[in-house]
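#lab-general

N.A. 3:47 PM
ok so I finally got the sequence cleaned up, no stray characters, all 171 residues accounted for. can someone with queue access submit it? mine expired

B.Y. 3:52 PM
send it over

N.A. 3:53 PM
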Amino acid sequence: MHRCDFLQLVVDGADPVIAPEPPSAGHLLSLPPHSFHVAVLSLVLSYIPDPLHRTQVVAKARQLLHDRAGLLLIVTPISTDASFTPRRALPVLQEWRDAIEALGFERYAVARLRAVHALAFRCVAMPPETPLRPMRIAYDARVQAACAERSGRGLPQAENKGLREGPPTSG
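B.Y. 4:20 PM
back already:
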């Protein structure tokens, strides 16, 4: 097993490159394109703080997957779209689908399990170069603002618990 900053990983060459010297000895630096059949992003994307970085992770996975034979599996918490109840669900997963399909994927299957959404996409022909679409989650500030504007109140208080702006207050 090697350590790797996936956003910094270079997709190039014919062989993997591993840093030989300290302080990065053993860190994976690059992988060849189209060298994997399956990529699994399990409970990762919703914890990346920036919506565009989430999309960049998926785009990098697409570069590493075999064209027309690759499979991308994503597991993300139900809280990604705040769908603790269906009537409160936000269009976040549809935005994810649109962003992922714009990268050269086609939705294969979706399942809502007890605490997670499970998404499967298969690789299709790479589309022409297009700008990356951000993959937002329910707790991104812009999504909360859009909810507040749409409903006049934002997300229910129970779902905002522990998401204060600024330092904690004593009470």
